[in-house]
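Hi F.,

I've been meaning to write this up properly since the lab meeting, where we talked about keeping a consistent format for the predictions we share between groups. The idea is simple: the sequence comes first, exactly as it goes in, then the structure tokens exactly as they come out, then a line or two of notes. No screenshots and no reformatting. I'm using this chain as the first example so we have something concrete to point to.
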Amino acid sequence: MSAEAEVLGELRRLRARLPQLTGALAASADGLVLAQDAVGAETEAMAALTAAALGVGRRLTESTGQGGFRELLVRGELGYVATYAAGGSAVLTLLAEPRVNVGRLHLEARRSSARIGELVDGALDRTDLN
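Output, unedited:
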């Protein structure tokens, strides 16, 4: 099974555990879509915005002495956008309904982002060896 298929499987399992998610996207740190589950037609734009948010988040945490970037949560009138570092080269972005339990969102997303990071970083390591 390819890393892309495994990442997509992780996104689907995450959405099954959190029914209040309306979309899930895994992207490279430079904004390329790795896998998505029901995000919609604007997937590429969302991946690019996620990469920009990741860059701002990294600069903000580093310049304020908070260490490396881990996650970013944005609350809008109609729900949440949550972004999580996924290893050294990927990012997980989730869209959630306003009624989502934010603590559960963080718990489940942190687990999934760690798994996605392992998959993506592992695939990159194998590519570097070849």
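Notes:
Strands lie at 21-28, 33-37, 71-76, 79-86, 90-96.
The chain is about 50% helix and 25% strand.

If this format works for you, I'll send the rest the same way.

G.
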